[in-house]
Amino acid sequence: MNDLRVRPATEADLATLVRLRDEAARWMLARGITGQWRPGELDEGHFRRVMARGEVWLAQSGGRVTGAWELWWEDEAAWGPQPPVAGYVHRLMVDRSAAARGTGRLLLEAAEHRVAEAGRTRVRLDCLAGNAPLNAYYQDAGYRIVGHKEGKPQPGGAAPKSFTLMEKELRRVADGGAQGVSGGIA
Questions:
Q1: 93, 162, 80: which is closest to 124 by C-alpha?
Q2: How many CA atoms, within 13 angstroms, populate the side-chain half-sphere of residue 119?
């Protein structure tokens, strides 16, 4: 797992991003996690639009794509108007057939480093309120619950959902990286 590399996604990666998202949705459904993601819900156009106003990142290990995430610089639908102090992580996806255990945390750490590189001091995300294991996962990674958003609009015209709003404060460290204030990056 120490050969994990991250890079910005490009137009050539759009089909891979859709595949990752659909496989993650199928994995959740197979484990009884409903209400989160559905296969076929997002297409290449979704990821193209995110790339136009934010960032999409791919992770690779051993020459294979192991995961991806979106990084937004604002998220008014969930957080309302905010000063530019945070980056917003969305759609953290791991290819469970190619990724080693712990890859999700490494992707989250990479997103935190990118946010710090941009000069922002917080990483925010929203998590489906009814998904207790995922809420616990983010809390274990140092995120704290700071609120709830009822009825957040969803991509593709899906019915609005309720989310837990989570935040992690970052601090600068001597080597130029970022580290979470609450015990370090997982």
A1: 80
A2: 2
